[in-house]
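Predict the 3D structure for this chain.
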Amino acid sequence: MIDLAVWNLSVPVGSPAVTIDTPTLVKGFTNEYFHADSNTLFFWAPVTGSTTKSAKYPRSELRETSADGKENNWLYSSADNYLRANLTVNQVPSTGKIVIGQIHVEGSNEPLLKVEYQYKEKLGTGNIVAKVRPTPGQTEPTVITVATGVPMNQKFNYTIRLTPGGTLYVAAANFSWQQKIDSAWKTKPMYFKAGVYTQDNTGYATEGGKVTFYKLDVQHTKKA
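Done. Predicted structure below.
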């Protein structure tokens, strides 16, 4: 069973977009953009949806919290930090791009890491791409293709890991990549995000990103 007691949820309605707090989520919140049933999580973010403050694109996305519902921000050096997921991508917008997992940075509009599914229409499959900023001052992310040939509507896994020593690790669809990040990140409070962040904001209301998660787990293993 997926534990929702460590997340809040942004859905693409309201101005700015509404955040559903952890207690409401745990009680069984559901709408057209998110529902949890049969041990799965369903996310939908149409291109016409509203956005969170300072964002260009709509999202239906979980944000890491503590068990009491407060936002959970952590320093990577304090633990071995994991986000693990099993999911299917069910729909993409006309750009073909959706973000399915992130390490974000408190107080910043620029995440350390975005894990993006990029559908290639000519091939009929998608790539799993890591967009990473190895240093906090890097404005445009470095783009790394982690996996290729991932079909829509087929289950795959991903793991995001950031070690206490600062090694960032992304594994997806049986491929993996890793890189040491700059020690300047050591003082930056971080948090995981997961769901669907649609990388498009034009088109009809039927266009957007749609994802189903079958497993989603966060772990912070403290150093001995």
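Residues 22-26 form the longest helix (5 residues).
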